[in-house]
From TrEMBL:
CDD domains: AdoMet_MTases (cd02440). It comes from Rugosimonospora africana. InterPro entries: Methyltransf_25, SAM-dependent_MTases_sf. This is SAM-dependent methyltransferase. Gene3D superfamilies: Vaccinia Virus protein VP39 (3.40.50.150). Residues 47-145 form the Methyltransferase domain.
Length: 253
């Protein structure tokens, strides 16, 4: 678990948005276990996670591949957020994975070393958007390898308000599947985040800041934080809840 309930964890407003999140995507542990099984991570695999955040899924992927045998599984997480990467290093240390996982501060678009399993979850924008990301991933996965691609898509046709928040980037899920096929990917697995995963993702994203607000009502920043939280919650329940989806695809080629 990384969504700790340590009351001191939200004393810093800068990190409060993510401190209650297990990972920065709508995903239950059960769903993550399924995706990792479908990725079929073999011992000795090299796993790359582009836009890894604090790398919770990467750490679980490396553990799933096994680090005890003669050829240990290894992981590399790439992100531009130094604080998230540091959180990842600390998590790795608590799981005795420091020797197996490296966290690198780098623009994902400049990464060139291929891997056996590549994760890109909620991070297609780091490679220029959905289609450029799918092209880049084809160069970054070794022959016979697999990719876990998690990308926002429309479960239902978006209202103009929802399209205004998420722009032109998200595709209807059927169009996204067509794009995958036309770019030479085979879909080995497809699932979408369900409502409870979305509600938990949205709630944990706000939870640290909500706790901070309750603990610091007289802070000069409190008014701005309250307004932002209220607007984000209204947008979620009023504009895109049940419309925006997150598709998880295990891909081969
Ligand atoms: C929605 S989060 C997903 C994080 C992670 N994949 C997960 O599932 O928890 C997107 C991540 O992309 C990172 N990011 C944004 N621009 C980037 C870039 N150019 N290169 C690498 N990472 C970037 C952010 O710092 C953030 O951690």
């Amino acid at each position: 678990m990384t969504d700790s309930d340590d009351p001191d964890a939200v004393s810093d407003l800068d990190t409060a948005s993510t401190v209650r999140m297990r990972w920065n995507t709508p995903l239950s542990q059960e769903h993550a276990d399924l995706l990792l099984r479908r990725l079929d991570i073999r011992p000795g695999s090299r796993i790359l996670d582009l836009g890894c955040g604090w790398g919770e899924l990467l750490l679980q992927a490396v553990a799933a591949g096994g680090t005890e045998g003669p050829v240990p599984t290894t992981g590399i997480g790439v992100d531009t957020c130094a604080a998230d990467l540091q959180r990842g290093r600390e998590l790795a240390a608590t799981r005795s994975l420091s020797g197996h996982v490296r966290f690198v501060e780098q623009d994902a678009a400049t990464w060139r070393e291929p891997a056996d399993r590549v994760l890109c979850v909620g991070a297609s924008h780091t490679l220029g958007g959905t289609v450029p990301a799918l092209k880049a991933l084809a160069e970054l996965v070794r022959p016979g390898g697999r990719v876990l691609f998690g990308d926002a898509c429309w479960e239902r046709p978006p209202t103009p308000e929802a399209a205004a928040i998420f722009g032109e980037e998200a595709l209807p899920i059927a169009d996204l599947v067509e794009q995958l096929r036309s770019l030479g990917w085979r879909v080995l697995h497809l699932s979408t985040a369900d409502q409870r995963e979305w509600d938990d993702f949205e709630s944990t994203w706000r939870a640290g800041r909500q706790e901070w607000l309750l603990a610091h009502p007289d802070d000069p920043r409190a008014g701005e934080v309250r307004e932002k939280l209220d607007a984000q919650l209204s947008d979620y329940v009023g504009v895109y809840r049940g419309i925006l989806s997150l598709g998880y695809f295990v891909l081969g080629r």
